[in-house]
Design goal:
Layout lengths: L3 E4 L4 E4 L7 E10 L6 H19 L3 E9 L3 H10 L3 H18 L15 H13 L3 E3 L5 E3 L15 H7 L14 E6 L14 E3 L1 H13 L3 E7 L3 H16 L4 E7 L2 E3 L2 E2 L10 H5 L4 H9 L7 E2 L2 H22 L8 H20 L4 H20 L5 H18 L9 H20 L3 H13 L2 E6 L2 E6 L1
Parallel strand pairs: 3-4, 3-9, 9-10, 11-13
Antiparallel strand pairs: 1-2, 5-6, 6-7, 7-8, 11-12, 14-15
Helix pairs in contact: 1-13, 2-3, 4-6, 4-7, 6-7, 9-10, 11-12, 11-13, 14-15
Length: 465
Amino acid sequence: MTLKLYNTLTRQKEDFQPIEDNKVKMYVCGMTVYDDMHMGHARSIVVFDMIVRYLRWKGYDVTHVTNFTDIDDKIITRAQEAGIPALELSSKYIDKYFEDVDSLGIKRADLYPKASECIGDIIDMIQKIMDNGFAYVADDGSVYFSVEEVENYGRLTGQKLEDMISGTRVDLEDNKRNPMDFALWKAAKPGEVSWDTPWGKGRPGWHIECSAMCSRYLGDLIDIHGGGNDLIFPHHEDEILQTEAATGERLANYWLHNGMLQIQDEKMSKSLKNFFTIRQILERFSKEEVRFYLLNTHYRGPLSYSDKALEEASTSLRRLHNLYFELKNASQNAVGEENALEISSKLKLDFEQAMDDDFNTRAGISAMFEMVREVNSLISEDRLSKRGAENILEVLEDVDQVLGILPSGQPTSGEADAVVKILVDVRQELRKRKAFDLADEIRDRLLEAGIKLEDTAEGVKWKWM
């Protein structure tokens, strides 16, 4: 099967061909660390975690780099408000970042470079850009990239420079020659952290940090560059210009961007003050429920956030978890092994075909729930052998290496069965006392949890749905 990626640069799906056979160099723009992460950040982090997992599942040797912007205007402002050094503030939130990603079951990147630790690389890259005639030093000692020196600005957005100037509210600063010129280096202000350079004391601009870190740790040309689609302009457009101006090489062959998490048609962000932190959400939902909610739609599309949406995702995921428990506790049965082998083979084939189509987790998850339906049918007809159940479990756990949505550290189905039996006994006692409303509520609540009760002549029978 051929893996196809949607490349923002070409605006079409393309066959994935790594620069070096079986090796993938991938850079994902990381956090500006000045506050707790919210669910919008979680979406991007889970999406690219899934992409790296799938590439490795396919057999690729992936080097995954995600950076920290640990010096920035927002960090400086927040640190001044707190009365602490800027790098102390960013270090605190880097620690909290790792706590949050671990709580989401994220596989850590191979490298997490910090801008403050790559100042020498940043200065060297700026000097190359200046030497090649693409940047200038302003009167105050700041260094700006001159967009008029390039011919193809706007490749990712598909816009021309003149259109972006007329359509963007940009104040023409005294130091700039063109309103679209952007800072490679910002001259030092009193009280701000700064470093010495040939053109004066200061600190790096946002865009140049990623270009320098990407080049240092992965080389001048990489396979995949990723991030949220809110970074396409100006951040990723400017990264392209900087790297090409310094190295003469393309930055990346494939550009991947995830859609935004939205609340009432606006992206979730700190600036709009419409966000929920990862920690707040994980107080109410498991990491598997959060991952399922974030992955049960295509990564490039928008995703609307609401409590109801998360609750619906939780209810849906419970069906998969219930079957997972049932497969783990399947009893010996000589019938149905052939059917199970057919179901497991189909799941793996359908899952891989879905994921090869630009990481279509929505279709991949649908394949898993088709398997749930078919296996439940075997179970209801008593046609699932223990060996067949083990085979399905093996494939299910294999594909879940990509998604990370199967239960971990949860009660075994035997423990769950004991709880259900207690509730069934309580319901029977309520019925004897003619408290039918309460008895029906227990039945209905169990059904919502994926457990169906059946009143028969032989007594109450129940099964996982």
